[in-house]
Amino acid sequence: MLDIKFIRENLGLVKEGIRKKNVNLDLDSFIILDDKRRELQKVLEKEKARLNKISLEISILRDSEKDERLVESRDIKKGVQKIEEEIKPILEEWHKILMEIPNPPSSKMPEGKDDSDNITIKTWGEIPKFNFKPRDHIEIGKLLDIIDIEKASEISGSRFFYLKNDAVLMQFAIVDLVFKTLTNEAIIEKLIKENNLSLSSKPFVPMLPPVMIRHDVQKAIHRVFGDQTYRLPEDNLNLVASAEHTMAPYHMNEVLKEEDLPKRYIGYSTSFRRESGTYGKDMGGILRTHQFDKLEMESFTNAETGEEEQLLMVAVQEYLVQQLKIPYRLQQVCTGDTGKPDYNQFDIECWIPSQNLYRETHTSDYMTDYQTRGINSRYKTRDGKYKFLYTNDATAFAIGRILIAIIENYQQEDGSIKIPDILTNYIGKNKIV
Q1: pLDDT of residue 362
Q2: CATH 1.10.287.40 spans which residues of the chain?
Q3: Which CATH number is 4-98 given?
Q4: Burial class (CB in 10 A: 0-12, 13-18, 19+), 384
Q5: In 3D, which of 121, 170, 166, 126 has the Cα closest to residue 346?
Q6: What distance in Å separates the CA atoms of residue 96 and residue 94, rounded to the nearest whole number?
Q7: CATH number of the domain at 115-432, out of 3.20.20.70, 3.40.470.10, 3.30.930.10, 3.30.830.10?
Q8: Contact 248/217 with Cβ under 8 angstroms?
Q9: Predicted TM-score (pTM) above 0.85
Q10: Tell me, what's the pLDDT at 56?
């Protein structure tokens, strides 16, 4: 969430952010509500100070001198309780609206209504040309007995799947590739130099985070997705929709030293989403499912390096996709296609032959200190000041989606799949037949 002081001092900027992100919110009404909150809090603090003063006086008076002051004390207590009752619904409404005010987007982010207004920054790789009609991953998966959607549907319902045989080996080869890449300081340093960044080459720390999170914590980091979130209300827990949901609050209620930044993590977990909408062809297959595995990067930086940290994460994403030799395009996401917490966002879309188009496989979100204010994650600057940490998260690989890209781009006319060169040593073969 935004700092109320920042909102009041930058009303024009915040209003523009609300408009650009197409959020239905009346900021002027919120400021009127905030004025009322501030006024009542001043009165409340004044009355509490009076009550404390009288309580101190009573403590040093003789018993015979206390009666009059006790009556006065009781009257003030009643007044305090009345103000507290009056301010409670105001605070609740104030906090509810505050959580809905979006992070104003970067000036580098193009204004737009939806993903059709995203801008292509670059394309990489040659789109494969087949001398046969390419199959989709569903048909290939069934043919090679590596994906079983029918049995999963019978047992678990729609939008689930079994991964089998060499597809399982490929998944864990991808996991191994990611962990070995991101924990290699030489590779991180190489990407920093190639992209002219002024950052530490500190590698990423491997992490297996919990897949459940307290509802209040998930709300605080703005990662509850309404009816898309699987909730366990009796336990005050939710199932995460991505590994960063439990990685982003990792330094909750902590103060880090600026000299120890950045803190970089690469996490792997199963993720859960209701995916209740209808998406045409996406209803089948493994693109949009209720359960999927994902590798996610999360980093904590100071205010000065957060923007470059995002560029490093994008460079890591590109490096990983290039290792698999999958054609892709890098997109600058527009204001209408980004989330409330995002200051800036980039997507990578990989080529999917059966659909004859690029589909989103990676996203990179830079959220400044928007997430960390609600969970009190701070750092102490070298000159002794306290600031909220700046966060970035980015997809390393969403397993299902990158498997689709591999299966379809590497398919052969006889139904077999070539295995990307980088994965052959992990799997022990160069073809799935």
Answers
A1: 98
A2: 4-98
A3: 1.10.287.40
A4: exposed
A5: 121
A6: 5
A7: 3.30.930.10
A8: no
A9: yes
A10: 81
